[in-house]
Amino acid sequence: MVKVSDIAYIRLRSPDLDLQERFLLDFGMQRSARTATALYMRGTDPAHHIHITELGEPGLIGMGFYVQSEAELHEAATIEGASPVENIDEPGGGKRVRLREPNGYLIEIVHGIAQLAPIPVERNTMNWGEDRGIRAGDEKRLKPGPSRVKRIGHCVFAAPDQKTTLAWFNRNLGLVNSDVYYAGSEDNVVATFARVDRGEDYVDHHALFCTGGAHAGLNHIGFEVQDIDDVAVGHDYLKAKGYEHAWGIGRHLSGSQVFDYWFDPWKRLHEHWTDTDLLNNKNPTHVMPISQLRSQWGEPAPAWFGKHITP
After folding, report:
1. Which residues, other chains included, contact 87 with Cβ-Cβ below 8 Å and sequence gap of 6+?
2. For domain 6-115+149-307, which architecture applies?
3. For a 10 Å CB count at each end of the chain, is N or C smaller?
């Protein structure tokens, strides 16, 4: 079994790269590269890119996942239907293995993509709890502007056959289930949060959320930002820019992230989040009824939210 170490990027298609770049800049990313046919955007962390947009009709192409060695890439090449290990002929370089998940979307397993110098971000200190007084004498004055996106955290993906799709990711990428939701009886699983497996190392609560849907496609992509203030400042900035808000601000139950969702120009949901649960191989899988898929605070999800799937 190959065990991916993290999600690397999302790969979309859009008919206007200028418009896509403007949204992503306002959302809080920075351009790392652009060609005549593709746009590569980064966060403040060192990853060369976390969001790829190819020129074309709007749609989800697929997503990339890291492995920690080239040897693991060669193992990945033995997965049924996988390509041989190949050089990546795109900005950032590296090597990859390409394969298709059960619904036909591209999955890229990658290693050796270039790292960039991190973009410095000043720490936002708080006078609270045991740290009350940490910034005594200093006045907090938040600078208006976009959120500062750090990294990609997860993708939420819908499939008509949720069980088969999730099993493919478990079996071929080594994802392990964090929270499993059922409707009616426990054997009727309808949605699952799954994380990467790095053994005793702590990782995000989920890198993939796989849910049932009338058709396969993308529900949303989640990007980590610096802190709770960054979520709120970015919310005000996007609102002032006239972008369409979807849901938030609130705090999830599964994963416990503070979240805020926005539509890009082609109605793809992009999420700002901060403060996720971190789990390792000592954390069990939780099984619970779908009624528990909710927020801890903030408005409940709009009725349409879970059904919003863009192919």
Report:
1. 93, 94, 95
2. Roll (3.10)
3. N
Q: Please list the pLDDT of the chain residue by residue as tens digits (311 residues).
A: 899 999 999 999 999 999 999 999 999 999 999 999 999 999 999 999 999 999 999 999 999 999 999 999 999 999 999 999 999 999 999 999 999 999 999 999 999 999 999 999 988 999 999 999 999 999 999 999 999 999 999 999 999 999 999 999 999 999 999 999 999 999 999 999 999 999 999 999 999 999 999 999 999 999 999 999 999 999 999 999 999 999 999 999 999 999 999 999 999 999 999 999 999 999 999 999 999 999 999 999 999 999 999 99
**Tokens standing for residue 245:** 């808000």
